[in-house]
Amino acid sequence: MTALLYTVGVLLFALSLVVSIGLHELGHMIPAKKFGAKVTQYFVGFGPTVWSKQVGETEYGIKAIPLGGFVKIVGMLPPGAEELAEEVGTDAEGNQVLRIRKSNTGMFTQLVSDARAAEWELVQPGDEERLFYRLPWWKKVIVMGSGPAVNIAIAFAIFVPVFATYGNSSDVRTVPVVSDVSACVVPAAENGRECTDADPVAPAKQAGIEVGDEIVSFNGVPVGAWEDVQREIRANDDGAATIVVLREGRELSLTTNTTVTSRPTVGADGLADGQGTVEVGFLGVSPTTELVTGGVGYTVSQMGDMTVNTLEALAHMPAKVWGVAKAIVGLEERDPMGPVSIVGGGRLAGEAVSTHEVPVTDRAVFLLMLIAGFNFFIGMFNFVPLLPLDGGHIAGALYEAVRRGLAKVFRRPDPGHFDTAKLMPVAYVVGLTVMVMGVVLIVGDLVVPVSMNG
């Protein structure tokens, strides 16, 4: 049964990613077609084609390796100054026939030339007004930005109901509701042992405090948070205490003779610093921790924090992946909080679904949050302003807008469309880097996997 549930978890995660990829590519294709660009292919996956169907001018299909997808929009790269299209005549039907003049001096120029030539092989007579590079800059931004925006929207659609009902496992608060009452006072040096007959009764036990009581005030001082309760208890030293609690909707006033005990030294931040012991007030109760809940506004705020954390994670990604590489060969332990590939994500999903010790609701929430987290990261990653990522094309369109805008302000000749083909060497380097990091993470998830059980 466990193996079956594990397989179900992996398959659910894999299916969710395939759907997310498909929706990401629809995010590109729909506005591209809306703006009149020619879209010749829409595929989920890479490698050999498993299934495809031609609908109008677009071929829709699924490929064997579900690690991504693509939409082929004709004319992504403009003809550069060194590779301008020239008319060489007309065909039998009178349509203009274009030819690309090539200039391939130098390695980088050759890369640019080859990329541009491959792009223009798809251009057919009559496509001239439907080429992507000829779209206004803002349409380019919408087309390229809609893909990753869909992933972020998927994450948002999952976060909102989870945060509103179950709560946010990354945002825990401590409230002054009693979750445990100590039976006795154990010396700090022997903390953790069982009570004996020689141990004095804990002040909370003596006062009659029960699990579920909400502490409202301490010695007449209203308390709204657990930190307030903790401060008042510690400051009470060996004095008596009158504690007002809310129990089953009624306020009760409870009294204890003393709250003093020997506890670890308290530092300036209110936490034990472990340097010794000091006589401070001690009641003998533990607070309740609960997940913070919230709706749309709360989710937006949390996703803002996630954005900052994700940007920091992306900045440290190469170092983190290097750590995984060292863990693979046994040079260090793998960071359990470090990055994982979709293989690692699948393993975590399988473990979450098949762990019987965890309530079903918690397992379902973990799986949903895993799916949402992957979508959010994929969306943010694709906004990185480097080719071949979507953010690279967005950056190129924005640069084009600024450059043409400045030319208009200063009455200079229109510089024309920004030539993203000149950034192809960068695209190759970035693409190779991403591929290598992906392979390292996949190998790491197979050799030294991260487990939700530690």
Quick structural summary:
By secondary structure, the protein is α+β, with helices and mostly antiparallel strands.
Mean of all residue-level pLDDT scores: 86
The helix-and-strand class reads alpha+beta
β-strand amount: 15-25%
Residue ranges: pLDDT <50 for 5 or more in a row?
82-88, 268-274
Q: Characterize the overall form.
A: elongated
User: What's the helix-strand series?
Assistant: HEEEEHHEHEEHEEEEEHHHHHH
Number of strands: 12
| Strand line-up in the sheet with most strands | 7-6-8-9
Q: In whole angstroms, how far apart are the ends?
A: 22 Å
Number of helices: 11
Calculate Rg over CA atoms: 31 Å
What can be said about the biggest beta sheet? 4 strands, antiparallel
Number of domains: 3
Percent helix: 40-55%
Structure write-up:
InterPro entries: PDZ_6, PDZ_sf, Pept_M50_Zn, Peptidase_M50. Residues 198-247 form the PDZ domain. Belongs to the peptidase M50B family. Residues 13-405 form the Peptidase M50 domain. The protein has 454 residues and is an alpha+beta fold. It folds into three domains: 1-38 and 74-78 and 131-167 and 295-454, no CATH class; 81-120, no CATH class; 173-291, Pdz3 Domain, CATH 2.30.42. It has eleven helices and twelve strands. It has helices spanning 2-34, 107-120, 137-165, 203-207, 226-235, 296-315, 317-328, 342-354, 360-382, 390-409, 424-447; strands spanning 39-55, 58-73, 85-90, 96-100, 168-181, 214-218, 221-222, 241-247, 250-256, 260-266, 272-281, 285-292. It has a four-stranded antiparallel beta sheet. A two-stranded antiparallel sheet has the order 1-2. Helix 1 packs across helix 8 (342-354), helix 1 packs parallel to helix 9 and helix 8 (342-354) packs antiparallel against helix 9 (360-382).
